[in-house]
Each structure stands twice: as C-alpha cells, then as structure tokens.
Design goal:
Strand order of the largest sheet: 3-4-2-5-1-6-7-8
Number of domains: 1
Bound molecules: adenosine-5'-triphosphate, magnesium ion
Number of strands: 8
Distance between the termini: 37 Å
CATH class: Alpha Beta
CATH topology: Rossmann fold
C-alpha cells in the first residue's frame, strides 16, 4: 500500500512543485516505486520533468471526468522507478469543471484506492497554492502533508492557515491525516529574514520542522529549464544533496531506511 503525501501550503512560489518533483525523484533514486501526480492546473510538474504537450497522453482531469482509466494516463519518466500523471487544465472552462467535480470530496480518494496503484511505495501530489477545491480533495485522500515554506512573515501566516485547514479536514473528512513535516526551502544561513522566520516558527511549529533544510541553490532552478529533477542535472549540487537527505529523513521516519547518507547542511545544528 502506497504512502500518499500531499505537498501543500496556501502560498505561491515557496517550492511546492520543486519539492514534489525532487522528493519524488529522490524516492525513485532510492528504488522506491513512486508516482508523482500534478494536481495544480498550472501544470508545472510536466515542465520540470521535461514533458511537452505532444508527448503527453492524458491527465488526471480525464480520470476525474471518467473519460480515461488511471493506468492509461500514467507516464514513464527518465527514472525507472518514477511515474507521472500530468494535469492539463489549460482553459478557464476546464478549471471551472474541475472545481465543480471537486465538490465531491471523496473523488480523489476513490481514484487513489484503485488496484492499478497498489504497485507504488509512494504517491506524491503537488497541490495548487490555494486551499479550496483540489487541495481539499487531495487532503481528504492522503496519509500526510508536507509543507514547504520560504522566509517571510507571509509564509508564517500561510502556515497558520494550513494548520487550520488540516484540523478542519481531520475533523470532517480524514481523521488519519498527519503532518509529514515543515520544510524550510531556499534557506540562507545567517540572514535576518531567516532568523526572524525561525524565531516566529519556534513557538508553535518547532516539533514539525524537518532536520533537513533545502538551501537556496541556482542549480535547482537551472535544472527546471532543462526539464530535469535537480539530481539528474547536477547530483553533487547543494540542492540535490539536500533533497536526497530529505528523502532519507522521510524514509527513516517511515522506518524503511535503505539509502546511503550523503553530506549536507542539517537543520538540527540550528535547532539548538
Ligand atoms: P506555485 O504556488 O506557483 O505553484 P510553488 O510553491 O510550486 O509555486 P515552485 O514553482 O516550486 O513554487 O518554485 C518557485 C520558484 O522558486 C521556481 O522558479 C523554482 O525554480 C525556485 N526555487 C524553488 N526552490 C528553490 C531553491 N531551493 N533554490 C533556488 N530556487 C528555488
Ligand atoms: Mg507549484
């Protein structure tokens, strides 16, 4: 049975897609059979994995609207252990339809329960930067949520909103929903903005922080231009090593450690 993790926070540009793609790639490198599902109408995961319109044959929306079965919209990637389902909602009309469909709160949960997905160890879902509709049905369907944030007061505010939403989902739809962890992304040590952000997080959220932090790294954004996860672009870069460390941390937490420890910055040094 796959562990299902949603990557979500109601704030744009914090690294949800980057984390979804690179964590999914990390699991695949660790030989865990992984499925990445793009759940954001902007469709950014496809670009990050090098898919173009002409080499995509179906998407998650067609599964929701019962025009295709889930196994027919699964795409193979450059990594043998990583499969991908895109999201190609490129008109306002389609976005309206998907929002209407997502009023059925168990729509996605029923999709994920299908026999065709039992082969996976992990299913990663990249959510949009808002809570209503698609994010709610994703949270209804997953085991846990991983919350990436970057420095700033708005990120702290978004985190509070996220935890309120998680409580609501737990009370009303999915009592088993857990927080996988809060991930500090685009981390820059010894900067005022990060010092203040960590101080603001310490009071209520300290226990949820991953040991691993993802540094601000040029190679992470460069890799996107080449349609590759960071570790297939430059495996020795700080960003790739950090995402491999995050993979290892999550595997360890889920009691399935089987990849080698790589060097890199650890947030534990900072937590004191
Ligand atoms: P949206 O809410 O719009 O979907 P998002 O939360 O998914 O945004 P991303 O698209 O993953 O955010 O990242 C936003 C931008 O920040 C991208 O250009 C990405 O390359 C860059 N970025 C993300 N993480 C890092 C990092 N650790 N170092 C450098 N650049 C990064
Ligand atoms: Mg995104």
């Amino acid at each position: 049975m796959a562990k299902k993790i949603a990557i979500s926070v109601p704030k744009g540009g914090v690294g949800k897609t980057t984390t979804a793609v690179n964590l999914a790639a990390g699991f695949a490198v660790a030989e865990k059979k992984t499925l990445l599902i793009d759940f954001d109408p902007s469709g950014a995961c496809a670009l990050s994995l090098g898919f173009e319109e002409e080499n995509m044959h179906g998407d998650i929306f067609q599964v929701f609207s019962f025009t295709k079965c889930i196994d027919t919209v699964v795409h193979k990637t450059d990594l043998p252990y990583l499969d991908f389902i895109p999201c190609k909602i490129n008109t306002f009309d389609l976005e309206e339809r998907i929002n209407r469909l997502s009023r059925n709160i168990y729509l996605f949960s029923n999709v994920l329960d299908q026999q065709a997905l039992t082969e996976y160890d992990f299913i990663i879902i990249d959510c949009p930067p808002y809570m209503k509709g698609l994010t709610t049905i994703a949270l209804a369907a997953v085991d846990s949520v991983l919350i990436p944030i970057r420095a700033g007061q708005f990120s702290v505010a978004a985190l509070k909103k996220m935890f309120n939403q998680i409580e609501w989902v737990k009370t009303n739809i999915n009592s088993e929903l857990k927080v996988e962890g809060i991930l500090l992304n685009m981390y820059e040590p010894r900067t005022k903005a990060w010092d203040l952000t960590i101080k603001a997080l310490s009071k209520n959220f300290r226990e949820y922080l991953f040991d691993t932090v993802i540094p601000k790294s040029v190679s992470i954004s460069e890799a996107e231009f080449y349609g590759k996860p960071s570790m297939l672009f430059d495996v020795k870069s700080k960003g790739s090593i950090a995402y491999l460390n995050l993979t290892e941390e999550i595997l360890n937490r889920n009691a399935k450690p089987n990849i080698y420890r790589l060097g890199g910055s650890r947030f534990s040094n900072l937590k004191g």
